[in-house]
Write a structure and sequence with these properties.
The chain is of the alpha+beta class and about 150 residues long. It has one domain: Hotdog Thioesterase (Thiol Ester Dehydrase, Chain A, Roll), CATH 3.10.129.10. It is built from four helices and six strands; from the N terminus they run ββααααββββ. Strands 1, 2, 3, 4, 5 and 6 form a six-stranded antiparallel β-sheet that branches. It starts with 12 loop residues before the first strand and ends with a strand.
């Protein structure tokens, strides 16, 4: 159910309805799509010798999955007009077999008049242990009810 700008409240929280399991094929397909074929993501022998101790998912794969999981929450499906910005931190690795989900909280609201306003969400990408592997703030232009 989409939410209009005036229906959001500071501190309001949302969680993705499901998690997404990172599989080897997920990483390979993202590498093919993005062109990022860094050995850290694709070569286990190489990755084992890094501080991560093995292959990890692309950071931008995590960010992309967070965006998709937000869409599944459904709160902005029909009301978002634009994604206007983000600040994002990569806090920990996402490994093959991890299950990621999204937790969001309305952190700021700025009215832009009759058409809508900016909603800033504190956003976390969590692994199966509920540890934030990525986090930041996402700003979106959301319309008002007509």
């Amino acid at each position: 159910m989409s939410i209009y700008f005036e229906e959001f409240a500071l501190g309001q929280k949302f969680n993705s309805p499901r998690s997404f399991e990172i599989q080897e094929d997920t990483i390979r397909r993202f590498a093919d799509l993005s062109g990022d074929k860094n050995r850290l993501h694709l070569d286990e022998d190489f990755a084992r010798r890094t501080p991560f101790g093995g292959r990890i998912a692309h950071g931008l794969l995590g960010l992309s999955l967070a965006s998709g999981l937000l869409h599944e929450i459904g709160i902005i499906r029909e009301t978002v007009l634009a994604f206007t910005g983000l600040e994002w931190k990569f806090k920990g690795p996402i490994r093959i077999g991890d299950r990621v989900s999204v937790r969001m909280e309305v952190a700021r609201l700025k009215s832009l008049g009759a058409r809508g306003g900016i909603v800033v969400f504190k956003t976390e990408l969590l692994n199966q242990d509920e540890a934030a592997v990525q986090e930041g703030s996402w700003s979106m232009l959301v319309r008002r009810k007509e």
